[in-house]
Structure formats: structure tokens, C-alpha cells
Amino acid sequence: MTLKRRDEDLKRIVADSATTISSLEGLLGTLGDAVDLVSESLRAGRCLLAFGNGGSAAQAQHIVAELVGRFQKERRALAAIALTTDTSVLTCLGNDYGFEEVFARQIRALGRPGDVALAISTSGNSPNVLKALDAARERGVSTLGWTGREGGAMRARVDLCLCVPADSTPRIQEAHLVLAHLFCQLLESSILEGEVTG
Q: Of 101, 122, 130, 175, whose CB count within 10 A is highest?
């Protein structure tokens, strides 16, 4: 690859990324609704259960870290669990029940009415994510979906869906990171405001 071709490719990728990030303006209302849902759940002493595969697993863990720790402001720790981090549980469930059950079984064990499940899948079609959403519904757990493309099968299985209007997995994941930071910032502000006024 020539230097000129490489530079053109990189400029195209940066432009595509910027276009995808700009498209998130169309999701801000739904993002606000998601923050309200999770804020209400956390104030009631409930928990956020986050999960996804691959890069989406990393996004789930990132969000949970920001909530249990802090995003930008000092505040109380918020109840959140990433269902992607316990290797003993994941390998046990994968071995004994199959990989499609690794999140659903955890939802059945941990999920309670009033909790919120945050499912992240760039395609919206990951079988283990979809099974977990079905398990959440059975348990009375509210559901959020973060996805891309047309939303896949996830779209019909969640209470609120943030669907990034892009086809490229890397662009969707970049947009999910921006959504994660917006979500954490708004949620942190909402929790702090509620504690001051409540």
C-alpha cells in the first residue's frame, strides 16, 4: 500500500467515524429515557446487569466500572454488575449448558423485578444476548438494548433500544463508547441531583 493510499483510507475512516458519532443526536431522547429508567431503578435499591460479547463485553465492563467507581464526580457507589467477568461462572455455564446460556442463567440467578438489564450487541442477533433478554422478561427485569444496523432481533425484545445507524462493527462500537460516556455522565448527574433534592 502506498503512503497516499494509506492516508486516504485513514481519512475516510475518520470521516465515517465522525458521521456515525454525529448521527447519535437522533438517539438523545431515547438515551435520556434510558437514564431515567436506570436512575429510578438505582434509587430504589435495584441493580444494573450489563453484558455483551467481545468488544461489547468490554463496553459492558467499562460502564459498570464507571458506575461502581465514579465517572467524573464523587458520589456513592452505584449497584452494577458485568455478567462478562467471572471466568469460573462463564466457563461452567458454557460447558454445562452451552454458550447460549452464559448470560441467561446469570439473569435467572441475579435478576430481580426492578433491576435493569443492559444488553450490548452490534448486530442485535447474538443468541446468548437474546436468551438473556428473554430471561430478563421472565424475571420482571427491565431491558435496554444497545445495537447497530437495523437493530436485529434485539429491537423487539427490549423496552428501550439505542440503535446506532451504521453497518460497520468498528463504527458501531465507537458510537457505543460515546453513548456509554453520555449515559454515565447523565446518570451520575441524575443520581447526585436526586440525593441533593431528595
A: 122
CB contact at 8 A, 185 and 178: no
The CATH number given to 3-197 is 3.40.50.10490
Residues in the chain: 198
In tens, the pLDDT along 132-166 reads: 999 999 999 999 999 999 999 999 999 999 999 99
Beta bridge partners, 59, equal none
Cα–Cα distances in angstroms (integers) from residue 70 to residues 125, 141, 189, in the given order? 31, 24, 11
Check: CB of residue 140 under 8 Å from CB of residue 134: no
Residue with cell 426492578: 114
* CB atoms inside a 10 Å sphere around CB 196: 7
- The interaxial angle of helices 3-22 and 169-197, nearest 10 deg, is 40
* Ranges of H-type helices in the chain: 3-22, 28-43, 55-68, 87-97, 104-110, 127-139, 169-197
The single-letter code of the amino acid at 144 is: L
Domains in the chain: boundaries? 3-197
